[in-house]
Structure formats: C-alpha cells, structure tokens
C-alpha cells in the first residue's frame, strides 16, 4: 500500500477485537502503532505480543472520555514517534434494551464512549495533522446508526458519529485531513460466540449474505481509507455489513 511506511497510527480500543486486528495489519505495513485501551493488562499483553513480532508499538492506557487523559495520550505518542498521522476511533460499547428499561446511566456511558471519545481524540490529534499538512481520521460507527430496536443509546451515538464525520470532513478538507466512517454490521467477536443459538439464528436470518463478518473485513476497510490512494475520499460512510444496511430494524 502506498506511503504507509513510517507513519504513526493511534487506534483506540486496540488491545482486542477489531482494533487489535487493525493495529496488526497496519504494523505489518511499517506503521508505528499506539495501542490504547482502558485495561492496563490488555495493553501490556498486546504491546509485548506485537513487539515479539518486530513491530514498533507503544501502549497508552487512557479513558477516551476524559479530555486530559486523551491529551496526555496524544502528547505521549507525539513525543515518542514524532506525529500522529492516522487516528482510528474504534473504541465502543453498548447498553441495549427496550426504551422503558434503559437508565440515564445506560445512555450517558454509551454516548460518552462511542461519541464523546471520538470527538475528544479527533480534537486532540487534528492540530498535529494540520501542522504536518495531512492525516487520516477513521471513525468506526455501525449499521445500527440507521436504527435498531432496543438500541436507542447506541444507534443515537453512532448516528452522531456519522454527523461528526461529515462535519470534520468539511472543516479539515482544505488542511489535507480526510475523515471517513466505517459502519460494520455483525462481526465475529467473543460477544457473538456468547449469544444463545436462537439469537444468532435470528440475526443471521436478516443477513443477505447469510453470514457474519470477521475482524479482517473491518481492518481491510480501514487500510483502504488510510492509504494515499484514497486521498480524494472524505466524509463518507462505508458499510461493511454483508448487505444488512439495505433494510432497517
């Protein structure tokens, strides 16, 4: 892929799952990667694993919902690697349930992690990107931003992330910074494996492809957007969902 060697990527929530796979794929292409998570043990384990493979990585334990923690994380990354060229706002979580059963806390934590965190991280890195004359911000939304029963906080937060993507693309386009959004559908994660068989069957029945995606499917989409060849693409929502975005519900 063109021009990735030596660049620096900060990936939130990258000590496991889609974020970890993306970190690995970028590191394999010579990108220096900042591994972020809120659990110290997971960060340390991932950093050691990647270094054993010869990758240039550093770990940063930080709560992305805390502005000072985010600022310190980004400052540390720049001090260590000299810049942040790529930001992947991957960290996310969901509190699901019927409207009548959801609490204010469910709403606050879901919106904070999925939307506020992406805002704070984008705000913290964009100055370095502008100063350098370019950069890539990739926000991981969800097909659920189109709406999903029992997903009021999550769908709202992910819809907000799409709005943030489009707004930042307008603000930063002339500065050489592209901002795009990936909207995954069902992806094979430990959470999927823990679902009862009847739930998995119900989800799969709504899949036009009849199957779920893998971490690699998301990593591949991110690799597409961060490449120099994608420099004329910004403000877009790219669905990686096996066609699930073709209908709501």
Name its key features.
alpha/beta; Rossmann fold; seven-stranded parallel β-sheet; 7 strands; 46% helix; 15% strand
Give the N-terminus to C-terminus distance in angstroms: 37 Å
As a percent range, the share of helical residues equals 40-55%
CATH architecture identity: 3-Layer(aba) Sandwich
The largest sheet has its strands arranged as: 3-2-1-4-5-6-7
- Which radius of gyration do the C-alpha atoms yield? 17 Å
Order of helices and strands: EHEHEHEHEHEHHHE
Strand content: 5-15%
Number of domains: 1
- What class would the helix/strand composition place it in? alpha/beta
Total DSSP E strands: 7
Low-confidence stretches: none
What is the approximate shape? globular
CATH superfamily, by name, is NAD(P)-binding Rossmann-like Domain
Total DSSP helices: 8
The overall average pLDDT, rounded, is 93
CATH topology: Rossmann fold
Instruction: Describe the oligomeric state of these chains in a short phrase.
Output: single chain
Main sheet properties:
7 strands, parallel
Query: In CATH's first tier, which class applies?
Result: Alpha Beta
Blueprint (SSEs and pairs):
Blueprint: E1 8-11, H1 17-27, E2 32-37, H2 40-52, E3 57-61, H3 67-81, E4 86-89, H4 104-132, E5 135-140, H5 152-172, E6 177-184, H6 190-194, H7 197-205, H8 215-226, E7 237-240
Parallel strand pairs: 1-2, 1-4, 2-3, 4-5, 5-6, 6-7
Helix pairs in contact: 1-8, 3-4, 4-5
